[in-house]
Amino acid sequence: MTRGVILFAFNTEKFNYYKMAEYAAKRINHFLNLPVTIVTDKDSYPADTEYVWDKVIKITPDKNNTRVWGTWINKGRWQAYEFTPYDETLLLDVDYIVNSSNLLKIFDFYDDFCCHNTIDFLMQPNAEQEKLSHYGYNSLWATVVAFKKTNKVKNIFNCMKMVQNNYEFYMNLHSFNTGIYRNDYALTIALSIINGHLTDNRDFIPWNLLHIGSNTQIYKSNENELDSEFTVTFDNWQRGKIRKEYITINDLDFHVMDKELYVGIIENGK
Amino acid sequence: MDIKNLLAESKARFNHNSAKAYLAEKYQSKLIVAEQGGLWKANAETILLLNSFTSANLVLVDTFNSPVKVDRQQLLEKLQQIYETTMEQWYTEWQLLESKR
Lengths: 270, 101
Hints:
The structure holds two protein chains of two kinds.
Chain A: E1 3-8, H1 17-32, E2 36-40, E3 55-58, E4 66-67, E5 70-71, H2 80-83, E6 88-92, E7 96-97, H3 106-109, E8 113-116, E9 119-121, E10 141-148, H4 151-165, H5 167-173, H6 183-194, E11 209-212, E12 216-220, E13 230-238, E14 241-249, E15 254-256, H7 259-268
Parallel strand pairs in A: 1-2, 1-6, 2-3, 9-11, 11-15
Antiparallel strand pairs in A: 4-5, 6-10, 7-15, 8-10, 12-13, 13-14
Chain B: H1 3-9, E1 13-14, H2 16-30, E2 32-35, E3 38-41, H3 44-52, E4 57-61, E5 67-71, H4 72-98
Antiparallel strand pairs in B: 2-3, 4-5
């Protein structure tokens, strides 16, 4: 039974996602001791890379997704099922920082598929769970997905493809208008369809996905690239003034939503 | 700029409540364990329940809401061990935080 991690990384005009993936992969090797496969394209994959991937899969990505800051190449995540060389796979976003061995626990309890259904924000307690719309489903998160190669999982990923290809229809059906394609929403809809619009707790990771959200910054506490200690600062607005607050964290995984911050961590980590 | 200078220059203050919440988040996930075909939380409620019975086997509802027949003593020992280790680590880190007050 083989286990490994698969990452998708396609550089855009603004961000070097390959570099983010390489940083993520080193931490995955260190904390989880798992091999990492990258799905990328020829323009992103540098000729002079020193990192040794378990497998490099080069594809032609769909670049038809635009955010305020530019192109966001996030479509095609459903292909993880087809591309993974492993029997058991962790599909991670490159901006998810593995900082503990916690994810290994998933292999002990999941049936064949699981992802996060709840989130929390570091330094911002009582965060509301994201919904597709006011009266829609609670969003699931495609940031961390564990899966085995079973028929059910194949159907989930095929359904994600179907949702991606008909995204406007599903936006109308579920009354959300993000303007951009989001894997989180496609996964939410796909899993719901496959489960007959019922909720199965066994599909969910039993702890929160931790985000580094707005007004929050994160820095490595020292220069060691693989150290697990980070300092988190938060701009607490009170009576029109910012009161800067901080905590230090270690041995805890987290998702950096702001790519500029993530780049800062990578550059500060060497 | 190193992190100590950055915190000093921005006059950042250590936030005990956020640190407390972070510790709770971290250690709650460490209390979760898969054992005997079920997923359990090594918390006081489950440990006390296991301890209050004397039978060799017991059916419990796990965190996925599935009924699971378990070897009571074996599960009790496992959860007690995880509880003790995790709570000790939590306490140690909490003491370090308190010292910053």
